[in-house]
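<instruction>
Derive C-alpha cells from the sequence
<data>
Labelled lines for chain and fold:
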Amino acid sequence: MSASVAGHWDFWIDRSGTFTDVVGRDPSGELHARKVLSENPEAYRDRDAAVYGIRLHLGLANGEPIPAGLIGEVRMGTTVATNALLEHKGERLALVTTKGFRDALHIGYQERKKIFATEIIKPEALYDDVVELDIARTGARVMFMMSSGGLTAADMFQGKDAILSGPAGDVVGLVKTGKSGKEKQIQVTDRGLEALTRYSEIRERLLVEATKVSGLSQDDLSGIASHLRALSGYYEQAARSAATL
C-alpha cells in the first residue's frame, strides 16, 4: 500500500543475521509487516535488506529512489554487531573498563561446566587490548547501558551486563536502576510504560490480522490458548521434578 502525498510512513526494523523484519505504519495509521532475508545480493541491488523492505511497503521497485518526505521516522535494532563479536569477525576490539578491573572478564565467575576436568580450556577473549580509566579522578557521574536497555551507575555495572542482545535501538531510558540497601532494583520509567503499551497495541493488531486467515473462531482460539497454558504448566512441573532426581 503506497503512502498518501499528505502523510508519511514510519518504520520499525529488526535486522538479525538471517531475517529482517520491517514493520511500517502508513499515513492512515495502519500497520504492515514484512519479513525478508537479511542477505540476498541477487535480489537487493543495494545489498540492504532494511531498505528493500521499506521499498516493498512503499510499493517501489527494487533500486527505485525513495521520494524525499515520504518517510517520517525509521527506528532500527540489530544483532549483527553482537553476532560479529561472538564469531570474532570484523574489526579488532579493545575493552574499556574501570581501573583495576583489567582481568575481570578473564576471571569471570569461576564457573566450570565440567567440574572434574583437569585441563580447563577457556574461550578466546573477544578483545585484543584493555584500556583502564580512573573514573574517580574525573568527578563526573558515569552511567553505563546494560543489556536490559537500562542505565546504571558505574559502580553497579558488571561485565555480564555489557553485551547487548536483540534490538537495542531507542531503548535507553525505558527502565532505570536503583539500590535499596544491598538489593538492586529495576523500575520501568514513564517512557518505558508508554513503549510497552504501544508494543502491546501493535502486537494485538498484528495477531488479530494473522488469526483472520486461520479460519478459527474466538472460542477455538481461547481453547487453544487454554491448552497451551496447561501444557506449559505441566512442562514446568516436570522440569522441577527432574531437577530433584
